[in-house]
Amino acid sequence: MTILRDLAERQLPQILEDAIALIEVESPSHDLEAVARSAKWTSDLVHERLGVTPESIVTEGRTHLVTRFGSSPTRLMLLGHHDTVWPIGTLTRLAAAVTEGVLRGPGGLDMKLGVVQAIHALAIVRELHGDDALDGITLLVTGDEEIGSPTSRSLIEKLAAGAVLVLEAGGDGGELKTVRKGVSLYRIHVAGRAAHAGLEPEKGINAAVELARLVIAINDLSSPAQATTVTPTVISAGTTTNTVPAEAFVDVDVRATSAAEQERVDANIRALQAIHPEAVVTVSGGVNRPPLEATMSAPLLALAERVALEHDLTPPVGLAVGGASDGNFTAGIGIPTLDGLGGVGGGAHAETEHALVSAIAPRTALVAGLIRSITSEGGPRVEKQSG
Fold this sequence. Notes:
Keywords: Carboxypeptidase, Hydrolase, Metal-binding, Protease. This is Probable carboxypeptidase. GO terms for molecular function: carboxypeptidase activity; metal ion binding. The active site is at 83, 145 (proton acceptor). Helices cover 34% and strands 23% of the residues. The chain has 2 domains: 3-180 and 291-375, Aminopeptidase; 182-289, Alpha-Beta Plaits, CATH 3.30.70. It contains 9 helices and 16 strands. The protein is elongated. Helix 2 (32-50) runs parallel beside helix 3 and helix 7 packs across helix 9. The strands form 4 sheets. The chain has a 6-stranded mixed β-sheet with strand order 1-2-6-3-7-14. The chain has a 4-stranded antiparallel β-sheet with strand order 4-5-16-15, with helices on one face.
């Protein structure tokens, strides 16, 4: 066992204790007070484990934490979030605990464990090499990732530099997430004209019928060959059973592996037109997150493979997934990004959410090794690339 793995194994009881404590500070994204409490607890943990106090940035009531180490410009950013999808009170039925080698609790895998692992990986590097080894590193923990990062995106893109390690959960088999689809979200609204459905329906313009035609066209924008999915989701129309619907809308979820595919779908959605000449189609929304393409993760995946070999860790394997993360933003602005470095388990956003305890120390050691390799002058260099 190498020294990194040994230190991570020794820290495992503390990692678990810290993770359970953070899980127990429930923090659903829309509850601003709860997110603020979670941020305060996370800030205190960073100070206790690393000796520095994060800067608390509150935007539109949402609390994000920025921890800068040293005085040099950022050459590495560790990225995570402390908000969750779980409402207050979930702990009463899903307690935070370790049982039979599994860490459970709402938001544990996604991704409070990852936040704790990032802190402990930094602590390992500090213990081995001193405070100067953390110079030029930024740890960013946001508070609104689960709702699309509306207030943190600009902060992420402003602070990201050099390389980015994202401590979101890995694949179910421990894979690193090297490709993430980009996400676009739309609402297509149709304005028609109401009329009595029994007396004079011909005087109306049926927005539901117009929308139904559009939904088929929207669905047909999917491209299996390009792994692009265009999915009509929420649909609403009409007010009463005896009234021609004057309004209707559909929400659309788009997932694509390339910016070019996002642009193709966007252009086609914005070109939608109703059949009835007096019906009005309005499109709102657009690209929410650019894709994390393989070209942006490849340099760091190669580095992770070398770090694993040097420290007797299981060689990492890359995985393409449909879900997005804040790593999509950093990759989208041309910064090498490696995702899925957090917990290993399954059931994110589900009652079965869990992380395998056996994977925590090896993964934390891998992150520590990556940090050291990226920031040390003698280690492999990761250059910024164009997106």
